[in-house]
Input
Amino acid sequence: MTSPAGHVYLSRLLTDGAMARLHQLGRPLVIGEENPPTRAALEDGFAGACAAVVTLTERVDAELLACAGNGLQVVANVAVGYDNIDVAAASAAGVTVTNTPGVLDNATADHTFALVLAATRRVVDGDRFLRTRQPWIWGPRMFTGLDVSAGATLGILGFGRIGRAVARRAHAFDMTVLATSRHRTSGVDDGVRFVDTDTLLADSDVVCVLTPLTPQTRHLIDAAALARMKPTAYLVNTARGGVVDEAALVDALTAGHIAGAALDVFENEPHVNPALLDVPNLVLTPHIASAGAATRDAMGILAVDNVAAVLAGRPALTPVR
Ligand code: GLV
Output
């Protein structure tokens, strides 16, 4: 197979390691900037490209794919989630779509667990309190939270690679681990008990949302799901904002239907629903769960390696199925 003509388009600057790998491709490059491209710049970048490396801030739809012309072979997403890409439209156009599974499991699980501990042990509340500069002294009732290591139950909604990595951390904290999976609804494997969603919501002290965003999982955590949780339970979302109905979460937190929550992802990123900012028992981070420096290098390098494979006529390393 002959190499396709055209440039490789990169929508946003990646980390140094990934940029170095991109330059090693030895292809003409069109490189975007630090910030996300405008739609017009994105369309310009796709026009005539043989490959595109994009991030989760770029919406790759049928119209954009059409801008590329016939030479586009691969769109490589620098993320494990790919709800920003119309995969059906890409397949119909004969374009391979790839993502970056595996390389971010530990970083994402670390951040998920950081949020579990931050929310349950009131790390951010304590930090905010000290910054008010008001006088304080140690007290037996001060900032008490959930003892995760005293037999608390952690529920993983969506047990994939990252869920498995979160389970390993939970086991190290002596937690009981429940999970939901598309592949099984009962039984125990490696200390993880598989249950249905309602059981997981009702029985967990901490619910971690790790399921991809699909039409089936949009607002999986709605008012009814939150009502099933214990009033002492916490919700942590490091998957995609759209899986949680933010308005329902604000209501549940305000009414004390659950004890607290932590969100790394938001329904309308980068917009953050202002009501979330006024809820005290909520920890927020700006979509940084995979932001270990080495992990971000590895994600970008895997995306570029996917491009290299496809342009050389080999199978993609991590195609989206
Ligand atoms: C980050 O959110 C990712 O999907 O990799």
Notes: The chain has two domains: 7-102+294-311, 105-284. The pocket of glyoxylic acid is lined by residues 56, 79-81, 104, 290 (CB under 6 Å). The radius of gyration is 21 Å. The first strand starts at residue 7 and ends at 12.
